[in-house]
Amino acid sequence: MTTYGICNLSIVALRAEPSDKSEMISQVLFGESFTILEGNKHWSKIKLSFDNYEGYIDNKQFEIITDDVFYELTNDHEIYSGEIIDFITDSNNNFYTIPLGSRLPFFKKDEFYLSHKKFRFEGTTFSGKLPKTEIIQKAFIFLNTPFLWGGKTPFGIDCSGFTQMVYKMCGYQLYRDANAQAKQGEVLSFIEECEPGDLAFFDNDEGEIIHVGIILKDYHIIHAYGKVRIDTLDHSGIFNTDLQTHTHNLRVIKKII
Fold first, then answer.
1. Domain span including residue 142
2. Are 18 and 90 found together in one domain?
3. Packing angle of the helix pair 133-141, 159-169 (nearest 10 deg)
4. Residue 103 in 3-state DSSP?
């Protein structure tokens, strides 16, 4: 029998192996639902509903939900929190913080439900597909966020987590990793064809896609490298304005929207 779960904490590590010492490969944000693939006393291997990404999560850091609730979530209009950090309160006035992009299940009139528990939220929300111009506005929210391998929040983010979260906030779905994102969308043959909001992908010496960023106007790019920063983009790749050298080799430009 298939079992489902939902994240009931602000930010939870998704790990490569069932151990606290294992690499964090991504994060599960408040309100994200998932399928439980296998489990033991302490850890569960899960597959996230949003992008089908798989990893291990501590059993103490999520709640089991019924099949009916999972399917209702799948069909429910997705509404997300819109501030870098905000808070929710339950019916007992317990206080919880949630990061940007947390899902608010079954949200209506400043209230939502998680595992039949009612919460109140009075902050900014976003939902639905937004114009392509909003991609850039949402990307700037993350400017100067420190790089964190596996991160997905304004407190630490990696290159593909950055592009995924920005597109998510605008109503579009990207895969979690850069090499998978590079398989989405339409290829643009020349840098001159790109528009602000398109994605640029970069490879290593072996030809593997290892980096991604969001193209800005006037041949600039915003990407997570040490921190979320703005650099120059040319036919060779990314020219780092601080180091005065090229740091990434351009492989392909893709139009998603």
1. 133-255
2. yes
3. 130
4. strand
